[in-house]
Amino acid sequence: MDFRDKQAIYLQIAEYVSEQILLGRWTAGDRIPSVRELAAELEVNPNTVMRTYEFLSQQGVIANKRGIGYFPADEALDKIRAFRREQFLQNDLPQFFKNLTLLGIDLNEIQTRYDDYVNANTHIR
């Protein structure tokens, strides 16, 4: 995993875990990798993954079943989507609109490219 400098590593790992849940790779009832397993996979300190799991637990995205491990919460998909949607609408979309305006890109072109993307990536839905 390539980490970005502008965001804490544990938050970047939280995004990774959330994405795995959104993509259906880790579903409610399925155990997610242990702290040590994920740390080894991502080549980070286990304390960093533990911080990620504690953060996601506080957000209600994952739950710890004592002695068994961590699992996506039943409502994980809804919580992740709501959080990411709000982040996108407040942070990314204004910058996107600014770029459209500065570059003179028409919304019809965006629609066409979006439709092409959706058709090429139907497996994501």
UniProtKB/TrEMBL annotation:
CDD domains: WHTH_GntR (cd07377). Pfam families: GntR. Keywords: DNA-binding, Transcription, Transcription regulation. Residues 7-75 form the HTH gntR-type domain. It comes from the Bacteria. GO terms for molecular function: DNA binding. This is DNA-binding transcriptional regulator YhcF (GntR family).
